[in-house]
Amino acid sequence: xxxxxxxxxxxxxxxxxxxxxxxxxxxxxxxxxxxxxxxxxxxxxxxxxxxxxxxxxxxxxxxxxxxxxxxxxxxxxxxxxxxxxxxxxxxxxxxxxxxxxxxxxxxxxxxxxxxxxxxxxxxxxxxxxxxxxxxxxxxxxxxxxxxx
Length: 148
Fold this sequence. Notes:
By secondary structure, the chain is an all-alpha fold. It has 2 domains: 8-64; 69-145, no CATH class. The chain contains 5 helices and no strands. It has helices spanning 8-21, 32-66, 71-101, 112-133, 139-145. Helix 3 (71-101) crosses helix 4 and helix 4 (112-133) crosses helix 5.
């Protein structure tokens, strides 16, 4: 099993395929050495683009975490609390209202996608908070909890 953890192999493969694909645009007299040089130049351009993209994403994340509005940092707990509120409405409040009013309300249920998304957010947040409370202050727990 060949894993390319750095991404260099995928860039090189892409550059090679691009040279083969646009081979019709290169002069027929182009030697293998010149094709290899063109492949290297394309590979460097793709790598430069990828690096710029990653740096832009990084700067956006850093800017979001440094902004004065702390809601961005509280977004995960907000999702948890909103999910709890919806669960309370559907499974507690509406059935009680139905019982008190002696009315048969339509059956309500939260969609399966809600449960998958909400449980995933809760699991990541709870694990991150637990690790943070035990003193783990690594980059991963800081990303999960939004702390500095």
